[in-house]
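Practice problem 4.
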């Protein structure tokens, strides 16, 4: 039996929320557990409901999407957030990803892309719409700006980071290295802590920038 993914929507446009409700209703594995029409309301409700995946607009009254991401993750670092917005400018994209958003989609994305993003992010993986991915690729090609970690990664952690950068899931990495998924998850947590990064999307970016992996 497929496990239900609990979804929360934060968007100040009623017509967008209505469209998302209709889309989610077509998928038996998805359950809408709450909505908010501004950033402050989103932070409060997400803290109480602890949904599996949060769909969050970047521009909302009272508190914008970036502030909401920061506030949500202050009290709940495991929050899985997909930014769903009309804005694709570089600063918004990288600010959202740097502060912990696992997914970033434009509202012009197809319903299939959004559903795929929800399932990917629910598993703890990143998901970027094609136009956003191209921005990330351009950022990757900039000269390295990140300082080396003071607590070096172990040989196994480097190996796992390289596999993360290739887009492999924890299950796929576990199968490849013949270890348990829990062991991989622990290694990924240590990697993120050592590198002071919010998520595996940023870890992959770090690996590419520092020459530990290639496109």
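Answer key:
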């Amino acid at each position: 039996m497929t496990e239900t993914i609990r979804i929360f929507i934060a968007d100040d446009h009623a017509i967008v929320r209505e469209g998302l409700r209709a889309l989610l209703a077509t998928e038996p594995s998805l359950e809408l557990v709450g909505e908010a029409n501004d950033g402050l309301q989103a932070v409060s409700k997400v803290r109480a409901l602890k949904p599996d995946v949060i769909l969050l607009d970047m521009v909302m009254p009272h508190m914008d999407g970036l502030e909401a991401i920061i506030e949500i993750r202050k009290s709940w670092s495991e929050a899985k957030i997909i930014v769903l917005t009309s804005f694709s400018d570089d600063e918004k994209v990288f600010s959202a990803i740097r502060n912990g958003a696992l997914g970033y989609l434009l509202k012009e994305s197809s319903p299939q892309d959004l559903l795929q993003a929800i399932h990917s992010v629910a598993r703890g993986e990143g998901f970027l719409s094609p136009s956003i991915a191209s921005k990330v690729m351009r950022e990757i090609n900039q000269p390295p700006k990140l300082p080396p970690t003071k607590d070096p990664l172990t040989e196994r952690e480097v190996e796992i980071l390289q596999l993360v950068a290739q887009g492999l899931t924890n299950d796929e990495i576990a199968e490849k290295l013949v270890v348990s998924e829990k062991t991989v998850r622990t290694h990924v947590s240590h990697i993120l802590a050592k590198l002071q990064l919010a998520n595996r999307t940023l870890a992959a970016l770090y690996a590419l920038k520092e020459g530990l992996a290639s496109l």
